[in-house]
Amino acid sequence: MTRGMKPLGVLAAAVLALAAAGCGGSPAPAPASAHALLLDAKASLDRSSSVHFVLTSQGATGSGTIIAGGSGDIARPDQLQGQFSVEQSGFTASVSVVAGSGRFYVKLPFATSYTATNPTSFGIGNPAQLISPTNGLSSLLLAITQPRLAGTTRIGREVADQVQGTVPGASVPVLPDDNRALPVSVVADIIPSSHQLRRITLQGPFTSATPSSYTLLLTNYGEAVHVTLPAG
User: What is the domain count for the chain?
Assistant: First the structure.
């Protein structure tokens, strides 16, 4: 071997090291499996004391009272304060809602006080149950059959991993369902760094036989929420 020449193995190692450095150092870790992402998102939501939500819908039409959207705060174990957009007979109204201790109150347009009622009168379950660890959104995540990774998506300044799949219609909490025997499509957007479920979109026969979709955006995990129930 000519003096000054390095063995072939040493040269190959040097080339590989330079290539790695040129690509920004160590290779990026492989993305978590869809099932692992869902498990982490459930754990993150279950240990959070509260969450802020924004609900939107597309194509939600039908007879009776339709929940078109809403926003508010939910705190454990069953407290909620927010507003919902309600449609009936072509008219849309904003209804204020507070809930807690098994009670549900609404303040209708032009009313000056809250009235105790049952959320089923609006065609929904109690939205305060959305963060229930046993029958809320986190349990819905584990009901997704054959979940699959679907790339990433941007939500504001965050980049989320997407998981897609289907769930039995009977597994969907709170929302109405015209035919609970049919499956519902699910897209869950999960922030990999915090494991927070940031957004979930459900598509199925919610308000009529024609498919519609509801999207729930979740933020402000664990922030202080104070809900005051009406007297009486």
Answer: 1
Residues 6+ apart with CB under 8 A from 198: 155, 158, 160, 189, 190, 191, 217, 218, 219
Domain range for residue 110? Answer: 30-219
Quick check: is 225 in a domain? Answer: no
Q: Is residue 154 part of a domain?
A: yes
Q: Judge whether 23 lies within some domain.
A: no
For residue 109 the two structure tokens come to 């347009």
What's the full length of the chain, in residues? 232
CA distance 121 to 72: 20
Distance CA 202, CA 10 (A): 55
What value does the mean pLDDT take over residues 13-24? 43
The token pair at 175 is: 């929302």
Task: Render pLDDT for 61-103 as a digit per residue (tens, 0 to 9).
Answer: 887 888 999 999 999 999 999 999 999 888 899 999 999 998 9
Distance CA(88)–CA(15), nearest Å, equals 69
pLDDT at 21 over 90: no
How far does Cα 46 stand from its chain's mean position?
Answer: 13
**Position 119 in a domain:** yes
β-bridge partners, 99: 80, 104
Report CA Rg, the chain: 24
CATH classification of the domain holding 108:
2.50.20.20
Report the distance separating Cα 26 and Cα 62, nearest Å: 54
The predicted-structure confidence for 104-155, as pLDDT tens digits, reads as follows 999 999 899 999 999 988 888 999 999 999 989 999 999 999 999 999 999 9
